[in-house]
């Protein structure tokens, strides 16, 4: 039972990390301090995809399966838990492009919001300075 829960925990952590890495930039629109954590998550996802690195969570899931007497799954998390569920198998490149567009859109929106907020702050300071002149 414990190893089954470990598998569920590893897969759940994978989904949470993937969601944050892809969509966390939109959360940063509301909570700007999240942006650097999201950038790090997105970069980790990019490195994993480009280099086919073996993710530590996949390693944990595979070890738990072995302890249950099951063989490790072929491929990684995306192959086993995302392809065929969130996008059709065989369309990995299209999914990667969609993810890149989502991440870049969130970053662009974040940058625009930060810029707008800075301009408002500067404008407010300028208005205050103008009032002191009168």
UniProtKB/TrEMBL annotation:
Q: Name one Pfam family in it.
A: DUF2784
Going by the UniProt record, its keywords in alphabetical order are: Membrane, Transmembrane, Transmembrane helix
Ranges annotated as spanning the membrane: 6-29, 41-60, 94-113
Name-wise, this protein is DUF2784 domain-containing protein
**Species whose genome carries this gene:** Couchioplanes caeruleus subsp. caeruleus
